[in-house]
Each structure stands twice: as C-alpha cells, then as structure tokens.
Amino acid sequence: MEKTSRGPINFTPIIAGISATVAVISFFLGLPNNFTLSLSSQEGSVLQGEKITTEIRIDATWRNRQRVSLSASGGPEGTNYTFSPVSGPSRPGFSSELSIMVDKNSLPGRYEVIITGIGSNGEERNNKYFLNLKPAPIQQVDSQSQVASGVGQVVFPAYIEDLFSLTGRLGDADDLSLDISSTEDPHSIPSCLKLIYSTSRTPIKGWAGLYWQYPDPTTGYEPNGKNLTGSNQLTFWARGEKATEKVKFMVAGATTGFITLTSKWKQYTLDLSGKDLSNIKGGFSFIVNRTLNPDGCTFYLDDIRYER
C-alpha cells in the first residue's frame, strides 16, 4: 500500500456552542511574595510607667516564602517597643508578641502606634494600634512617713491633672472653649492647655471660669477631697496670645488677683503656707470677664503643680 504524506490537519473545535479556530491556554504562574500583618487587638489601655502587650501575626498570601522584620513607631514620647521574635518567615507564618513599655513621665492621652512589617523583597505592610495612656495612681506614703515628715497622702511635686479633673464650670462657662492638647508652643513638650474666651454672645453674668475638681462628677460620688497637706505652694506657667489678657487664678483661698499675662511663658506662684489642705475638692481655678477683656482673649496654661 502506497503511503502518502499529509500536511497539518486543521480542525475547528466547538466550545460550549462557540466556534473557535484558536484555543489559548493560560497557565497560573503564582503571585508575588505578599503577606498580611494582623493584630490580636487594635486597642489597649495602660498606666504611666507600665507595660502592655499585643500579638502580631504574619501570614503569606500565597505559597511563596520570605522573611519579615517587625518594627513600631509613634505613641507617647519615650515609649519602648520590643518584639519577640523580631522577625520570621511569612510561610508557614509566625506570631510575635509586642511589648509596649510606656515612660512614667509620658502624658496621658490616646495615641496611634504604627506596626510595620517589611519583607526581604521590600514588600511593606502596616497596621494601627491605639494606645490609651492613663495616669498612674497617686503614690501613697505609709502612716509612719506621714507622721515623721508631715506629708499628706500625695507625693510632691504633684501635677494638677493627676489629682483633679477639669470639669468645674463657673459663670458664663459656655463662652469658654479649650484645647487640652494644644501644640502651639507648649512650655513642656508635647502639649499645653489652650483657652479661648469669646464675648460674641449676649452675656448672662459677664464673666466665666473653669476649675479642676475632685471627685470627677462623671465617675460617682466621693465625700472627701484630696489631702494635699504638706504642700506650701502651687506653681503654674501661663502666657497670653496678645499680652493683653487679664485673668484671675485661685486655689484654697489664695489668689493672684487679675493679672495681665505676657506673650512669653512666665511662672506664677500661689502661696499655700498656713492653708488647710486636708480636704481639697477644688484644686485650681481661673476667671475672666468682659470688663477687662471686652474683645475676648486667648491664653495658655502648662505645668500646673503642687510643690513643697
């Protein structure tokens, strides 16, 4: 039988009822070296000078493997971040415990901490952790020490925000607005208290004020105030926006009278010698009025504290 050669055989396949002369076959070649960074919790609270932990989890999004290194940034000044371990493989993945050690002098507040993972191929992933920093409990001294030194239950110097809450309202208090974390040239970094007195509304009393008090009325009733026995003065720093601001400061019967603030930070002292400080509920206050500030005023306070 004679054999004859044949050329290519052309055919037209029918795929799901659709005529196709050319069939294109795609092959899945794999994904880049991607990974995910997740947290066991997105928020936590800690006291000044103490530590809090959270767990970081790294997982590959595909089969590829790379080494991921961890770091953290942001948060209160002076905070120390420690990862255990500090790096690991994205596949099969690993967990790391992040310890956040807060400095005892860090200011209370809500801070954002950025957790970062960087892979060996340069891929970067970030996640946010919100840290709520609470004031540490006021240090107590034993009764024997109190008798020996005459010191009350508070160790001095003691900052006003650690003892009292700024929740007391006086006069036309609605004419006052405040920023408790102003970064406009604070006396002590990172922030100070900014207060704005507006005279745009029709006055009711013609004056306004705020005061730091204990207990905080939002937390419940407490019959006794703070025992500040042993303190002999309260000091604070103040400045005015225009150097024309006239403000009166008071505590425990001591007062500055109305004083004109300077545009530069200046320290003021209220003498508490001979005052009964065993049951203080109003820790510090100020008053402004329309007569002396007809166009309103803006002023700043910082580092308010009781001293011996």
Task: Give a structural overview.
The chain is mainly β. The protein has two domains: 35-134, Sandwich (Immunoglobulin-like); 143-307, Jelly Rolls, CATH 2.60.120.260. 4% of the residues lie in helices and 47% in strands. The chain is built from two helices and 22 strands. It has helices at residues 143-149, 160-163, and strands at 14-15, 18-19, 35-39, 43-47, 51-60, 67-74, 80-84, 87-89, 94-101, 109-119, 124-134, 158-159, 165-171, 176-182, 192-197, 207-213, 233-240, 246-251, 254-260, 266-271, 282-289, 297-307. The strands form five sheets. Strands 12, 14, 15, 17, 20 and 22 form a six-stranded antiparallel beta sheet that branches. A hairpin with a 2-residue loop joins strand 18 (246-251) and strand 19 (254-260). The relative contact order is 0.14.
Essential attributes:
mainly beta; Jelly Rolls; disordered N terminus; 308 residues; 2 helices; Immunoglobulin-like
Task: Describe the protein's topology.
Blueprint: E1 14-15, E2 18-19, E3 35-39, E4 43-47, E5 51-60, E6 67-74, E7 80-84, E8 87-89, E9 94-101, E10 109-119, E11 124-134, H1 143-149, E12 158-159, H2 160-163, E13 165-171, E14 176-182, E15 192-197, E16 207-213, E17 233-240, E18 246-251, E19 254-260, E20 266-271, E21 282-289, E22 297-307
Parallel strand pairs: 4-11
Antiparallel strand pairs: 1-2, 3-5, 5-9, 6-8, 6-10, 7-9, 10-11, 12-22, 13-16, 14-15, 15-22, 16-21, 17-20, 17-22, 18-19, 18-21
